[in-house]
Amino acid sequence: MAISKTHPAERIREAIAAGQRVFGENRVQEAESKYPALRAEHPDIKLHLVGPLQSNKVRTAVQLFDVIETVDRPFDRKVDQQTEESAIKMQPKTRIAFERRL
Fold first, then answer.
1. In sequence order, what are the residues at sequence separation of 6 or more whose Cβ sits closer than 8 angstroms to the Cβ of residue 94?
2. Is 101 a member of any domain?
3. Residue 57 domain-assigned?
4. Is 102 part of any domain?
C-alpha cells in the first residue's frame, strides 16, 4: 500500500501509471478531494482509511474507502454503530477493521 496523504492527485497518477493500485489516506476530507476523480479515471484502484475516523465522517468514509482499517476510539459506541449502519446501507462494499483492547 502506498500512503498518499499530502500528495497531490498528479503524483498519485504517476504512481498509478507505474502500477500502484492500493493507496492509504489518513484523512477523509483529503481523500474526498482527490479520489472521486482518480477513481473515475482508474476504477481498479483501492483506497484504505489508515487514520482516525470521526463520527461526523462515517457516512462519507464508508462511501469512499474500500477498507477502513482504524477506528480511533476503540470503545466509541457512536462511531462503531454509525460505521456499521452505514456499511450495511452501502451493501458489502466496505471492509472495516475494528480495534478492540481486552
1. 61, 62, 65, 66, 67, 68, 87
2. no
3. yes
4. no
Cell numbers found for residue 48: 484504505
Task: Name the residue range of residue 56's domain.
Answer: 2-96
8-61 tens-digit pLDDT:
999 999 999 999 999 999 999 999 999 999 999 999 999 999 988 887 888 888
> Residue 91 and residue 11: Cα distance in Å, rounded?
31
How many domains does the chain divide into?
Answer: 1
Backbone angles phi, psi at 29, to 5 degrees: -60, -40
Task: Round to whole Å and give the CA distance between 15 and 74.
Answer: 33
* Alpha carbons 34 and 69: distance in angstroms, whole number: 19
| CATH value at residue 57 | 3.20.20.10
Task: Determine which helix (DSSP H) or strand (DSSP E) holds 23, and give its type and residue range.
Answer: strand 22-25
Question: Is residue 50 classed as helix, strand or coil in its secondary structure?
Answer: coil
